[in-house]
Amino acid sequence: MTLLSIIIPNYNYGRFADRFFGSLAAQTMSLSDVEIIFVDDCSSDDSLEQAEKWAGILECRDFKILTPPRFGRPGPVRNHGLEQAEGKYLLCFDPDDEMRPEFLEACIGLLESSPKISVVYSDYHEVAPGKSFIRLLSDFNPSHLRDQNTVATAAVYRRELWDAGVRYRDNTSYEDWDYWVQCLMAGGKFQHIAQPLYIHHVHESNFSLQAEKEDGSAKAHIVMNNPGFFHKAVVGWANDHLRGRAHAPSFQRGYIPTPEDLQKLSDMIRNGEISS
Questions:
Q1: pLDDT tens, 72-91?
Q2: Contact indicator for 229, 146 with CB cutoff of 8 Å
Q3: Quick count: other Cβ atoms within 10 Å of Cβ 248?
Q4: pTM summary value
Q5: Running DSSP on this structure, what letter comes out for residue 129?
Q6: What domains can be seen in the chain, in order of their start residue?
Q7: DSSP code, position 136
Q8: How far apart are alpha carbons 208 and 180 in whole angstroms?
Q9: For the segment 106-158, what is each residue's pLDDT rounded down to a tens digit?
Q10: Burial of 233 (0-12, 13-18, 19+ CB in 10 A)
Q11: Closest of 207, 237, 232, 244 to residue 95, by C-alpha
Q12: DSSP 140
């Protein structure tokens, strides 16, 4: 079996190809047992030409270039690539970001040495116009996923989770968050590496920035997709929010309300402090 499959969902990111594939070529871990699956979502730039160029440069086990019909969002593009993956471990990595040289060695090394661990994620550098900082993530706690996503997008995990039926869903823009909840419910054990192992670049074309515009419905769909993971009061909030009920607001960006938040809101409405 191939050791690792890296799925690269791409749409008009050809301008980042040299930076991304260059970081892959610079990995301290050999790519000889790594397959790369580049899935292009009908790009109109030179993405395919860039992928073909790097397919001839990288010394990896295999380099597949897939060109399915247009999906329009990363989740289904990732699923399409994952369906073709043969790796013992799986990784979806966005090509506008880049890996630190030790990224693969650290993540795969931990999974190989810790058979009870299913998902490995790390801290990362975040680079935006005019600023740069290290995003320090929390050690994993299952309860954290009930109100916010504390797992990095670029996480490496065992294919058993995919085989168990975990899939990226297309009804929420917070696809990663929903995916990690599914992994947890499928029995996945998460491990955080307290070290910045990749660089996330923020720019005007990031899907995550576009997803913020759909924040309320995106969070509500995560809850409705995984009702067994959330408190019944939160499921009620999600259902009411999707139905446009005034007493079920979005709350702050990237945060799913807790039962305590909802009780406080209910008390404020009942006391006339805010209108429903």
A1: 999 999 999 999 999 999 99
A2: yes
A3: 21
A4: 0.94
A5: T
A6: 2-212 (3.90.550.10), 214-270 (no CATH)
A7: P
A8: 16
A9: 999 999 999 999 999 999 999 999 999 999 999 999 999 999 999 999 999 99
A10: middle
A11: 207
A12: P
